[in-house]
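wait is this the right file?? whatever heres the structure
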């Protein structure tokens, strides 16, 4: 009998000891600690506090009343700098900047130094940039052309082709360039149309990265200074001439010739005695294509009175063609047009009104747009 009692006591003591050890282990689960600089140190995986778990639905509910949820990329036709990517795979992990652009757009080109700089600066701290390349012209749909432009402008972040404008329409977008910032919870909390706003955009990036650090309980230090890439910014208030389109599908009443557009036909154009500023004038035989004018005669000219500092031509040629560029009657340079691209024609120091003339001595030039800076 005594032996039974002793055995029972021993078993009871063992059970009490086991319970005591387990209770001590539960008190050792690490909680977020405050670093000396006031920021939280990283939490051991799986040790999320009850307070953090309760805060997440509250945070989400507050955002739902203010912002729209992100829209996923829709059936990209091609990928550059990545095999495949989605926005959804980054939600809960990173913040995402979606940039709608097209490579022959001068406004898009001038934003690329900032996007490249932000990518290099913040890619290791939770920023993902996705360039959604939505073409304006048919030649911008070709993968090789986009890839060549990506290499030319030093773009290292992922680029997806949106040739059918499916993602463009999903975002109800109408502009190049147009940037959307998506936070860690998948809400579009900021967007910016066109050039400029670089400081505001970067400050918002930093704000969203700080929120990410807090949500994921990371101890990352962000650089407070803003990016200042070596990029010249135009003074839009001094550019008096809007972008000019040559194709009849893009007509904005910008042709000055009395003959006008002749869709899908070849027309011989004559220069009038008097001309109006901010309209283009043709001389020679030109085929009217939906997105360009194509020189068919052995010689041809394009004239334009513009107000700006810089002038660019989006163009291509079936074989390399030399164009003589004149400003106010003086030869400035000769530009060789070959592959689809944006070709700088005039690069002045000051904004002013000038007469531009382009002279061709062989057929084959396809002119798409004049852009100004």
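ok assuming it is, sequence goes like this
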């Amino acid at each position: 009998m005594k032996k039974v009692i002793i055995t029972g006591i021993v078993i009871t003591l063992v059970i009490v000891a086991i319970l005591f050890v387990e209770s001590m282990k539960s008190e050792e689960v690490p909680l977020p600690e405050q670093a000396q600089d006031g920021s939280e140190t990283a939490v051991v995986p799986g040790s999320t506090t009850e307070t953090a778990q309760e805060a997440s639905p509250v945070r989400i509910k507050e955002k739902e009343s203010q912002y729209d949820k992100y829209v996923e990329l829709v059936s990209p036709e091609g990928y550059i700098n990545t095999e495949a990517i989605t926005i959804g795979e980054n939600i809960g992990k990173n913040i995402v900047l979606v940039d709608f652009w097209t490579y022959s757009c001068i406004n898009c080109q001038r934003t690329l130094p900032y996007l490249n700089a932000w990518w290099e600066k913040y890619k290791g701290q939770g920023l993902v940039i996705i360039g959604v390349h939505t073409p304006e012209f048919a030649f911008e749909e070709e993968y090789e052309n986009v890839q060549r432009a990506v290499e030319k402008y030093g773009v290292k972040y992922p680029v997806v082709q949106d040739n059918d404008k499916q993602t463009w329409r999903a975002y109800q977008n109408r502009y190049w360039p147009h940037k959307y910032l998506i936070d860690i919870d998948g809400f579009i909390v900021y967007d910016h149309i066109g050039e400029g706003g670089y400081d505001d955009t970067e400050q918002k990036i930093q704000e969203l990265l700080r929120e990410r650090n807090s949500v994921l309980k990371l101890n990352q230090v962000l650089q407070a200074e803003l990016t200042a890439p070596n990029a010249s910014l135009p003074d839009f208030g001094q550019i008096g001439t809007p972008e000019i389109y040559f194709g009849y599908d893009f007509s904005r009443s910008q042709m000055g010739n009395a003959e006008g557009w002749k869709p899908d036909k070849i027309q011989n154009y004559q220069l009038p005695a008097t001309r109006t500023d901010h309209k283009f004038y043709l001389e020679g035989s030109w085929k009217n294509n939906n997105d360009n004018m194509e020189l068919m005669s052995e010689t041809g000219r394009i004239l334009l009175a513009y107000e700006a500092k810089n002038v660019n031509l989006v163009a291509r040629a079936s074989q390399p063609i030399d164009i003589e560029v004149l400003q106010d009657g003086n030869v400035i340079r000769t530009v060789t047009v070959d592959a689809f691209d944006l070709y700088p024609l005039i690069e002045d120091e000051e904004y002013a009104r000038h007469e531009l003339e382009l002279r061709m001595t062989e057929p084959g030039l396809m002119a798409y747009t004049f852009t100004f800076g």
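Residues 2-26 form the longest helix (25 residues). so i think its the right one actually
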